[in-house]
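Technical note accompanying the year-one report. For the benefit of new consortium partners, we illustrate the data format agreed upon in the data management plan: each record pairs a sequence with a structure-token string. No post-processing was applied to the example shown here.
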Amino acid sequence: NNGSSWSDPVTISSNAIKNDEYVQLGRNSSNDIFAIWRRGNDLMSTYSSNQGATWSEPYRINEPINLNNSK
């Protein structure tokens, strides 16, 4: 319906996503939906293979970094 109506909200992470953690959404050729956001120094991701009805457990997709380590 080209965005003219929306389903009820669903939870994609049991850990609250803060207002400054912007979520990016994408879809692959199999119509799986992916969500990616930054939590502190980490990039987090979750996915749904049933049109957003349920989501995987969020997981970190980057190696930990230490921003306090100056060289």
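Partners are asked to follow this layout when depositing records. The chain has a mean pLDDT of 82.
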